[in-house]
Design brief:
2 copies of one chain form a homodimer. Chain A is built from 6 helices and 18 strands. Chain A has helices spanning 52-62, 106-117, 144-154, 197-201, 211-217, 276-286; strands at residues 8-9, 15-17, 23-31, 66-72, 75-80, 83-88, 91-96, 119-129, 158-164, 170-176, 186-195, 228-233, 239-244, 250-256, 263-268, 288-298, 318-327, 331-340. Chain A has an 8-stranded antiparallel β-sheet. An 8-stranded antiparallel β-sheet of chain A has the order 12-13-14-15-11-16-18-17. The two termini of chain A are 32 Å apart. The interface between A and B is medium-sized, with 24 and 24 residues.
């Protein structure tokens, strides 16, 4: 990606590092209830009423900006100079890469949700994979312990976890051990590194190319059916897409194609009874050398337990380095870390 | 416990903190094989041949000393001024509390195993619960990240994990992702805090009391059948026991009874098909306010998967705050964190 924060150039001006690894913030809101049980302006509890200029101002703090917008049914989707923002009635997802400062949005987001929608936060999921170059991040994001201290200063009952290896590839999570969200919810994420050169070629030399062509030629258009895709090519390379499904479903993909620090993220909340064939399509499309996979599901999710729906039958080209299954108050989570088998 | 390191007194001389939480090091060895496939002095690969004065010297580095010795079948067991040491043919377990420096034993242990038994390490498990007062520990042990860096400087392919909440009660593990131990192996640990006053009274005012009486009156004698118990009372309070089962089975219990920092650890490698009734007896005997429970099992273990044998049916007085199930190369691990339900 050529815009925004996080570029590191050597003396000749060549980009020597870009951190594709995103910081992902997902917030769930509910109406503030008055003491007599009445909900003040309850009909206003729709986060989409927050004015666009307020959102743009909040994004300045995060060090990124809006480059594209799309909508469908109950959702607004923004492609950002670094990744994506999704806003539906009660859920806001802000995912940003590079050296953006996503947690700097929190004060603004909580204030905007109160001011325009009379809403308060009921659940939060802040997560990220370990960075390739933590030393290049702004100070708060150099270590997850500091991010946790900051979040603990804002939220009560926050719980922080590390899945995978502290001294290797891992995935950090901060969430609230609190009220449950009473609707089906599930999130699959695949965070892929060391990607195949041929695949990455689709996302190189993008200057002057149409995003629709890249979406189609790369196979992204065929990953999830009935998806309204808003794709965006960065110059001279890089690609982002937001896909909107019916109701509040979404898919989002971000590609950093440079060989030295290639990274692709795939995320969806699409409701499925079994994610195995989707996982297989993603692996065939991007051919990562390594990846971390997480699946969050709550009790109402169509697939029920996250553990039973990721059977690994289609992962036979990969060696599993870690698999962990966590039971939280309202969600369960399956985490896996896989490395491509060099013999095959 | 009144001996050894880690006592913190206020001005009046009253003990204001003692860290019962142990650092647990378990090492597995195998004979060093020569290049032609011949095992040099293979019959000597029995760690019990290491002379006692060498062991005592190694323990000086850890800042603790031997206070009692027992043996049975294939095992030597030592009660230390801070916790325990078990030595069988190929396995060594060193568990020490207070402000001992258990990792300072590593260089000596590896050298002794090579010198006297021609053995090298094939697996390591270093684990501990979060300390109550990490600020009182020696520098290396104030943060697990530093312990990991130290272990990574000695071992290749070490994998470090945090189970539970980084910002709450958690349990740290460092292990090798390497060769498998080809014999059944399983370890149950329960690390208990906020213990019941009536139960802790058994381990208070121990000056002049017989350890046998404390073992019997506290109910410890009835926890595991066919167990050769070596108990030890510390003055003015505190209790440790090593229990030897047939072959290389063991049980070890350590009690820090002071109300302000009460702590009890239970650990066994007893082979069982189901640990539920043992867990229930431990909870009834010690009545902790909170506890962390871990069960490690390898493929050969009688109970198979650690997850399926901890059914929680007998934990109905407790609320589960976390449960995580991890699949490592040779072992699986179930971790749980439970808090006593105040309503009952």
């Amino acid at each position: 990606m050529d815009q925004g924060s996080g570029k590191v150039n050597n003396e000749g001006g060549k980009l020597t590092h870009y951190e594709g690894t995103e910081k992902l913030l997902e917030l769930w809101f509910e109406p503030i209830t008055l003491e007599n049980g009445e909900t003040k302006r309850q009909k206003m509890c729709d986060l989409r009423v927050i004015p666009r200029d307020e959102i743009a101002e909040m994004l300045v703090k995060v060090k990124c900006e809006i480059v594209s917008f799309s909508e469908r049914d109950e959702q607004h989707a923004y492609i950002l100079s670094e990744s994506s923002l999704f806003i539906s009635k009660r859920r806001l997802i802000l995912k940003t890469c590079g050296t953006t400062t996503v947690l700097a949005s929190l004060d603004s987001l909580l204030a905007l949700a109160k001011k325009y929608c009379n809403c308060k936060v009921v659940d939060i999921f802040y997560s990220r994979k370990n960075f390739m170059r933590p030393d290049l991040q702004h100070s708060l994001y150099k270590s997850f312990e500091d991010e946790v201290k900051y979040l603990d200063s804002i939220f009560d009952r926050g719980a922080a976890y590390v899945l995978g290896r502290m001294n290797g590839d891992c995935w950090y999570l901060y969430t609230l051990d609190d009220t449950s969200i009473e609707q089906p919810d599930q999130t699959l994420e695949m965070l892929m590194t060391d990607l195949d050169d041929e695949v990455m070629a689709h996302f190189q030399n993008t200057t002057g190319r149409k995003s629709e062509d890249v979406t189609k030629e790369s196979g992204i258009a065929d990953l999830v059916p009935d998806c309204k895709i808003d794709g965006f090519v960065f110059e001279p390379c890089g690609y982002s897409m937001n896909g909107l499904l019916k109701d509040d479903g979404y898919v989002t993909i971000h590609v950093t194609p440079e060989k030295e620090f290639s990274y692709v993220s795939f995320e969806t909340n699409a409701s499925m009874e079994d994610y195995s064939s989707l996982v297989d399509r993603i692996l065939s499309t991007f051919r990562p050398g390594k990846f971390v996979m997480t699946l969050f599901t709550n009790e109402q999710a169509a697939c029920r337990s996250s553990r039973d729906t990721l059977k690994e039958t289609l992962l036979d080209r990969y060696t599993r380095h870690d698999r962990q299954y966590s039971e939280f108050k309202n969600y369960d989570l399956t985490f896996g870390h896989y490395v491509r088998d060099k013999k095959r």
